Amino acid sequence: MLPEVRPATFRRSVAEHQAAVRTLLAGLPDALGTQTVPLAAALGRTLASDLTAPRPLPPFANSQMDGYAVRAADLSTGPVPWATLPVAPPIPAGTAAPPLPPGHAAPIMTGAMLPAGADTVVPIEAADPPQFPAFVGGDAPFRDHTTVTLPASFAAGTYVRPAGSDLPAGATALAAGTRLGAAQLGLAAALGLAALPVRRRPRALVLSTGDEVAAPGTELAPGQIHDANTTLLTASLAEAGWDTATAGICADNAAAFEAALADALAPDPDVTDLVLTSGGISQGAYEVVRQALAGRGIAFGSVAMQPGGPQGAGLLALPGTAPVPLLAFPGNPVSSFVSFEVFLRPVLCELLGVPPRPLVQAPLAVALDKPPGKLQVRRGILEDGRFTPLGGPGSHLLHALAHATALALLPPGPGHLDPGTDVPVLTMGDPQ
Q1: What pLDDT does 376 receive?
Q2: Which of 130, 330, 414, 422 could serve as a FRET partner for 1 with CA atoms 20 to 30 Å apart?
């Protein structure tokens, strides 16, 4: 059951708003439910229940090397440090191995089933001669009187992969909540599983607002800019494993915005797990999101952060729709992106197993000035272990964001930071 957040205004620290977002979304994992999907569709999904191994892995004892399957006791029957044994028919991979006759050595390939009676594999390079007889893997007929000389130094179990040595039957192969990558799907395939139970992908409705905003690909009227926020936020959500829907760009009209939001939620309100808006929440005269939703369960206020100070959050209650968590981000593109990284991504990491941004401590390469008492998030790069800012602190500087590989979290406190000051840095990898 999602908690109710009463409409209000607030002034919060970053930590306080992070906690409010975490509380708002606490019920998200339970709301997602379970579905079974083929392995090909499970990449990046979250395992819904513990995966128990239906069979041992490997399912039978097999050879780790190309060589000879033998009984270790047959290698040390006399005073000399080797044994000459008759060669049994070969055992290729993928066939049922017949029992090993006592006192024999069977040519065996890597991964082939160890025959009953054998407990050791002697690598081919340790044999004399150090190659298989001509009838192994060729067209020559098996010769019953062929022999091979093997050293007596190989103990029982050498170069043998016992059944279940990787994973015994009935053991937990993967725990519920595991995010499924290539290695996890490979394990499921090796266990013979063609499908897995996963959580339903969460779904968000993303809305941008503003008369000044036009869709990419359209001509700009005087005073307009192209909408970057819808792309920024839907791409960020997709990276975090979400499905998204959009409702276009909403004009600066509170009644029209509320109607567009209700229409977008009405067809199947239970499918929408989060509404994410950008713009319209500051102190201006045309703050459409704030005007429309302040009485609908959403609290608006300010957070001690730059960029991204204006914020809104709450449980949206519109007539005719089910209550749904809503986060309202500022309209400047960098402010929206930083809000996602600081407030939403950490909660998704905690609740849904989304991989977190690596956090490191790094010294500043240059001096930086910032508003005292606020967390300032600066775009930049990590170079030689030091953080170098790109561009200024402005929340409209998308070019710097596109080339950034890190976000420095300049802590609240003094407004000036000297070169060499250690600061927390979120690493984002190579720029796209």
Answers
A1: 97
A2: 330
